[in-house]
């Protein structure tokens, strides 16, 4: 694809960018430089090297990411295709709870490089030990869990909606899809959804009438305060909600939330990611979830790797000891 293909297309079509063969080789080259088996992604010196290397990513990829950062389009998602993920080099899909990627293998390095082109990679100390690259894999016995270890339908949410420093972007890269190739990342954009809502409903959603609690997997979170679900410019609001854990404080607020859920359902998109595909979800503009799928736990299950990115690291400085990349 040419550079032109990654410009924002007509309304309603998610933005996408496909790496050329030469660009894929260039990204692989940068990732190989970072793929030191003795290194550790979470080492601040490795993060510094990755940030420097990100400035050498192919220009067309950098331009697509930069354009998306300026305006995430109607859908709030940028799909990047053709990153260096080679099935024959992958170990078996992990099956343990809380699995993370400390070793800078080529796919994880490519994910961090792309993430660093967007902003600063961050993680949460209370979630998966603060690892910067997390595995999203199905875990035996956790099938019904509303989180990334589950394999039932995952309800739509913004990432860490309960947290004052929720990330600006969630980035998911596919190493393997499920056996049946049916598992899909679901996204719905608030830009599309609010157009379907009456003025009164939007107004209610913009009032502090909702409490979003932290998931059980997030240890020691603060007691949440009532907040609005829609925030910012009423004509182009930000969204902060988790349909598994946002509780309305009254009946009117509950009705408004239900209308919002229905609006999101009607504008939903499904991304069946294949190896080397990466989706950048703007966490202020889009909610995301996942279709159900059937894991086999045979080492070939669906495997995504995930990072979070913040655009203004300074804003969360009080919560990042030593000015590092991990939020307390
Ligand atoms: O499995 C997916 O496609 C998305 C899971 C999810 O919500 C996440 O990892 O943040
Ligand atoms: Fe999520």
Structure description:
This protein has a single domain (3-327), classed as Double-stranded beta-helix (4-Layer Sandwich). Helices cover 23% and strands 20% of the residues. It has helices spanning 21-34, 44-54, 59-70, 106-118, 190-193, 199-205, 251-266, and strands at residues 15-18, 77-81, 120-124, 134-136, 154-157, 169-176, 185-189, 210-212, 230-231, 238-239, 246-248, 269-271, 278-282, 286-290, 303-310, 326-327. Helix 1 (21-34) packs across helix 4 and helix 6 packs across helix 7. It is globular and about 55 Å long. 46% of the residues are buried. Residues 1-10 have low confidence and may be disordered. Residues 136, 148, 154, 159, 170, 172, 185, 288, 290, 304, 306 line the site of 2-oxoglutaric acid. 2-oxoglutaric acid binds next to strand 6, strand 14 and strand 15.
Bound molecules: 2-oxoglutaric acid, fe (ii) ion
Look up the CATH topology. Answer: Double-stranded beta-helix
How does the major sheet shape up? 8 strands, mixed
**What is the CATH-assigned architecture?**
4-Layer Sandwich
| Separation of the first and last Cα atoms | 41 Å
Number of domains: 1
Count every helix, treating DSSP H or I runs of 4 or more residues as helices: 7
The CATH class: Alpha Beta
**For this entry, what is the oligomeric state of its chains?**
single chain
Computed Rg: 19 Å
Strand tally, please? 16
Pairing-aware structural class of the strands and helices? alpha+beta
Strand content: 15-25%
- pLDDT under 50 segments (min length 5)? 1-10
Helix and strand succession?
EHHHEHEEEEEHHEEEEHEEEEE
Write out the CATH superfamily name: Clavaminate synthase-like
Chain-averaged pLDDT: 94
